[in-house]
Amino acid sequence: MPRILVTNDDGVHAPGIFALAEAMRTLGDVLVVGPHQESSAIGHALTLRRPLRLEERGPDVFAVDGTPTDCVNIAVAVLLKGRLPDLVVSGINTGWNLGDDVTYSGTVSGALEGALLAAPAMAVSLKRTPDWTFDFGPSAAVAQEVAARVLQEGLPERVFLNVNVPQGVPRGVRLTVQGKRNHVTTIAERVDPRGQRYFWIEEGEDDWLPHDRSDYQACREGYVSITPLQPDLTAHEAPRWLASLAR
């Protein structure tokens, strides 16, 4: 049976990770390793300046007091004793991870770390609702279908998938590219009871740039978005004048 590592950034007790683990159990043996508390927007952070604790929370369910990246590394090095899983799946996140948000996302970073370790990997996110009620059924079914294909067909080296699912029953599936937006960060300035200023980063204002194949456009129209990503950040279309600096 394939060995599937499930992680997330919403915390090991988040309902999304249990829905994802249940879907993955139809495909193989599942090991759940998630942060002991919510760790959203933590990006690809790796804990280096303090020790990490590993706690068993149930059969094949473990919590790490660190980031999603920490969770994947602890799972592989300690629980799997250096053996790579056949698949790393991160999610199901309560809120889309589209466009530029993938650089902040702990959910996406869990899959990214799997790819860096040379394991096939994917991240799964579901649209957030105003009242924070979620039906994980359709997104878990999508995750199951995509995971089955990944296990069967594989992925190119260092390529992983970012899957975003609308609420309700999707209209279909689209292969997409990472969207772009003009993002304006909103920062609230306040004063604490001692008269000291502090700042709170709030939801930003987004103006998404039009693109027929973007992940944002697909999800906005009710489709599942699947975007192949890679850790290579090289700008292959760099300014030509840079070549003149090479010696």
Strand content: 25-35%
From the structure provided, what is the oligomeric state, counting identical versus distinct chains?
Answer: single chain
Q: What is the β-strand count? A: 11
Work out the helicity level: 10-25%
Radius of gyration: 19 Å
Structural class: alpha/beta
Write a structural description.
The protein has 247 residues and is α/β, with parallel strands linked by helices. It has five helices and eleven strands; from the N terminus they run βαβββαβαβαββββαβ. Strands 3-4-2-1-5-6-7-11-8 form a nine-stranded mixed β-sheet, with helices on both faces. A two-stranded antiparallel ribbon has the order 9-10. Helix 1 (15-24) packs across helix 4 (137-153) and helix 2 (68-79) packs parallel to helix 3 (106-116).
How would you summarize this macromolecular structure in one to three sentences?
By secondary structure, the protein is α/β, with parallel strands linked by helices. It is built from five helices and eleven strands. The strands form two sheets. The chain has a nine-stranded mixed β-sheet with strand order 3-4-2-1-5-6-7-11-8, with helices on both faces. It has a two-stranded antiparallel sheet with strand order 9-10.
